[in-house]
Structure formats: C-alpha cells, structure tokens
Amino acid sequence: MVGDRIPITVCPTSTVLIANAFPRLEDHVSPQMRGAGLLATVNTDDPAFIDLDLGAEYAAVAEAFGWGWPEMVQSRSTASRPAGWTTGPRPSSGGGSPGPSRPLRILPDVRAPLTA
User: Fold this and answer.
1) Count of domains for the chain
2) Whether 15 contacts 22, CB under 8 Å
3) Is residue 107 part of a domain?
4) pLDDT tens digits for 61-114?
5) 14: in domain
6) 52: helix, coil or strand?
C-alpha cells in the first residue's frame, strides 16, 4: 500500500468511541501507520453521533499523539498528494467515469501489526 500511495482516511476518535477498537486514543495506530509510510489522513466520520468536529479531532489527536504543528500540517497535506489510482493510463468504463487503473484492495484490520 505504501508504494501505491493510496490515502487512508483515519478517524481515531471514532475508532475508539464507536468501533471500540482501542481502549484510549493514545493507543490508536495512526502514528505507526504514518511512520510506516502510509498516507493516513486525520478525519472524523460522525460528528453528530459523538459531538466531535474536525477541529476537535485535530486537537484530540495532537494531544494524544504528542503531535505539534508540523505533524498536524503533514497529516493534512497528505490528503492533497497524488494517489496511486491517479497515475498512469485509466481504462474506459464504457462511456461513464473512468475507473481505477488497478483493482482496489481490501484494507487490513487497523488493529493488525503493521508491515510496510
């Protein structure tokens, strides 16, 4: 996945509060994902359900992971980098919008050990 440069939307607080995948935000694997070279962006996916907007998510992530301004800017700028499916020829899908240039993969469980 690192070589394909496919951005991954990561919603750390939702993963803790809704999915119960980690006991605390500090235990989330987002820093390890970024350290492994994955294009992991910080987002929030259900602000109405857990009363959390993107600004609050950024503040919570910065505190939990010990990230300062440079790390937060990098986590946001990741989203604007070209993704793996935007490079190379794109096959026609019969007149509709073009599809990805290579098959999509099922993402691994976020709790699984990371390998590059």
Assistant:
1) 1
2) yes
3) no
4) 999 999 998 888 887 766 555 544 444 454 444 444 444 444 444 444 445 455
5) yes
6) coil
